[in-house]
């Protein structure tokens, strides 16, 4: 006899196995789909008297379809998004994050670009997965980073561009450009090459990074605005600016030599700032002393000449008296400070002793240190 008629196979009736009864159901049984459909049909028949295809039933079905169609126009805009509502494919308005409504499809549709998120594009470098480090590492891209400067030098520039969609340019962003990231990257690389090509290598490597970043950002923004891209460039950051790896050691030696040159120039300038004022002070002092000596000499000469002229005027009035006065004043000035001895022997010269003790006749002066008085003068 076949097993299907034995009610459970060769081991007896029911869902049994060779060791007894089969598995028993545990917990509540799931609802039967056919039973649910049957109950739903019964309720619809109760609501719509006369059957599904009566006038009232068809009207209710149409109303339900219209209600579901109208409710399909509700949509939610996330925090980083803006809602762009299109009416028959034309941009009509932009809505902010939150719950919004538009006329149901196909009258109006909505696009949800990430308009409030700041995007990053790296040029000259790329991030790759590194299984050994269990993370991501940076790999240089020479075809993007090597650029020619205005003084015909090569420089390796890696930079990052931060951009986002303009709040009032979402429509331009969606409909005017096809590949936004590729467009921003191409325009950024072109702008950086143009600015580097107008600059010297030394300012780029030392202190002109901020100026270069500002110039590149303005050039990128002007170019994208001319395209009508609806993109706002937030910032340009130069990550690495170095000479090519093949000449970086020689370049560092040149930089060290220039640093030493600047140090020596600063020391020489410091010494000059210290010595030059001192020399100028001494020169001014000498000039003032010479000026004073000149004024003194000229004043003395003028005084002597004035005195001489006055004496000469008196001499012309009374020559004999003036001559005698001059003689007396001169003798007084010459003999005024000397020891004097006057001997008047008379015309006959008698009574003159052969030896005259002049030292005893003159007033004795106290002897100076190491010496004795040598007597008077005749």
Helix/strand-derived category reads: alpha+beta
CATH fold-level label of one domain = Tetrahydropterin Synthase, Chain A
Average of per-residue pLDDT values: 75
Relative strand content: 15-25%
Largest pleated sheet: 4 strands, antiparallel
Give the C-alpha Rg.
60 Å
What is the CATH top level name of one domain?
Alpha Beta
Q: What is the helical fraction, as a range of percent?
A: 40-55%
Overall, the morphology is: rod-shaped
H and E string: EEHHEEEEEEEEHEEHHHHEHHH
Total helical segments: 10
Distance between the termini: 189 Å
Question: Care to count the β-strands?
Answer: 13
CATH homologous superfamily of one domain, by name? Band 7 domain
Give me the CATH architecture of one domain, please.
Answer: 2-Layer Sandwich
Q: In terms of per-residue confidence, which ranges show pLDDT below 50 for 5 or more consecutive residues?
A: 1-27, 370-378
Organism: Bradyrhizobium japonicum
Main location: membrane
Protein name: Protein HflK
GO molecular function, one term: peptidase activity
SSE order and pairing:
Blueprint: E1 16-17, E2 20-21, H1 33-47, H2 55-71, E3 74-77, E4 83-87, E5 90-95, E6 98-101, E7 108-111, E8 119-123, E9 125-130, E10 135-140, H3 142-145, E11 146-148, E12 154-165, H4 170-175, H5 180-197, H6 201-205, H7 209-227, E13 231-242, H8 248-317, H9 319-335, H10 358-361
Antiparallel strand pairs: 1-2, 3-6, 4-5, 4-7, 8-12, 9-10, 11-12, 12-13
Helix pairs in contact: 5-7, 8-9
